[in-house]
Amino acid sequence: MQHSAISEGEFASFRRFIFDAAGITMSDSKKALVSGRLAKRLQHHGLASYDAYFRLLQDGRHADEVQLAIDLLTTNETYFFREARHFDLLRQEAEAARPALRGGAPFRVWSAACSSGEEPYSIAMVLADVLGNLPWEVVASDISTRVLQRARTGHYPLERTAHVPPDYLRRFCLKGIREQQGTLLVDRALRQRVQFRQVNLNTDLPPDLGSYDMVFLRNVMIYFSADTKRQVVARVAGRLKPGGHFVIGHSESLHEISDAVRPVVPSVYRKPAPGARMTVE
After folding, report:
1. Domains of the chain: total
2. Distance (Å, rounded) from C-alpha 55 to C-alpha 38?
3. Deepest of 48, 123, 190, 278, by most Cβ within 10 A of its Cβ?
4. Domain match, 132 and 223 both
5. Could you report the per-residue pLDDT of 95-130, keeping only the tens digit for each?
């Protein structure tokens, strides 16, 4: 069945839908993205308009379809070792933590909007390299069940791995051959070190999420309104250990968003330890 082009009113409905579900504010320029990503769902259900699809999402009987629509509208492309300075910092912090890890609590890192998994696997490669058999954990979360499913496979096009250090490619990845040529598989042992779970940062965080030495929340807040940013950062910073680092994208800032963390360098913040005086480096 052919469907009509998305109207301004229909686009407004989906903007409200994704804001309510995920706290994401969509600009006028995203109309084509909404239309393109949802078109196959209209076709699948034999619907003639985006309004009919919106009504289907609203009727309360299609929770799986609601989640699928959220997945389609929130997915972002990424790649391994994006913004290399953040991984240099991770290496420094992991090395500094080594003495305390012998017989102690693990060094924990949260990739809080992990998309298709390149970020948490990059984190895991650094920790496996620096900490080896010392205790460490990587938790990776996203609102989208679809990208989490893809992330768990650890299977990627080779072009996504252009920034992976050659030594890490040899140690932690398997290059596809024959029908898998042009792809790469993250080694099973490393995949098993990353715990993937669905988390909506726009709602209360699960009690069992625990606390972290470092949190990556990168290239996501550009989609949030100021109020949503404040709420999300407050929730996430609440899971950061005193002295822990909060890492955001280079195009983002927490200026006037949070006083729970203090700036260290652009895109990197730190949660003060009790009684500590923080200075910007």
Report:
1. 2
2. 14
3. 123
4. yes
5. 999 999 977 899 999 999 999 999 999 999 999 999
